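Fresh eyes needed here. Kindly weigh in on this sequence plus structure tokens:
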Amino acid sequence: MRVWGIMPRSTIAHPTLLVTGCNGQLGFELQRRLASLGRVVARDHAACDLTQPAALRKTLREIRPDVIINAAGYTNVDRAEIEVKQAFAVNGVAPGILAEEARAMGSLLVHYSTDYVFDGGKSGAYVETDQTNPLSAYGRSKLAGEVAVTESGAQALILRTAWVASAHGANFVKAILQLGREQDHLRVIADRIGAPTTADLIADVTAELLARYWMLADRRNFPFGLYHLASAGQTSWHGYAVEILTHAQARGIALKATSGRITPILAADYAEAASRPANSCLDTSKLQQTFGMVLPDWRVGLRRLLDQIFH
């Protein structure tokens, strides 16, 4: 078994890799991690608008990437309940267009999905073959994207992940740190569980998979398909918040609300426009066994992330 990490540059050819959504949490990390694999072409929303099919196809045909890494997405879960058409355009329709173009060019597509394709009613961690049943417009749009990529016949990797955070962009970790500085007491949901996963872990694993793909003499033999990618272990949002403020306090960060001043609450007591899965745990056995990886515990990623934030 091999812990995730980048393969030596000297063994890898240099393809052209297109990263969409380059200003997002994952897109930002992907640019840094993929630089050793080839020529990275990074495109943000302005340069590659996924809601404009014709323009999107034009961009792809001009760049002609060897690998398309789709890190773009409509991610505002609550707003998606109102902006359903936009959410589906970005999360559902665009991935199908990327897949069609990838197939036509003989390129590889890497697409990211989410735990929100499940309803959260399972007692254990979800495996790739479990029945999907999204509770929200966001979840339905992401599932539509998965289906479009799968049905396209393109050579593709679909990586489902959950509870993503990074030092770049807005996320739960940064929100808790900010609230901990400003408020004397916090109330955080305790009956939703999952595995906090850092964007740099997702980017590292992606780079590892691409390195292995590019080394093959016949890349058609690569094990394409759907995989779950998340940190090991699990916690609740409340447990996550406690861990965040515990480490912040240990680093000497001035807090009004320390880790002992976070009250656990029920999801039902917190007003949200969109329903969310109570269980977001993803079983990553398929990914680890197929590629010989060992994914780290979520606390490892959190400590590394806090080091980056407080650096």
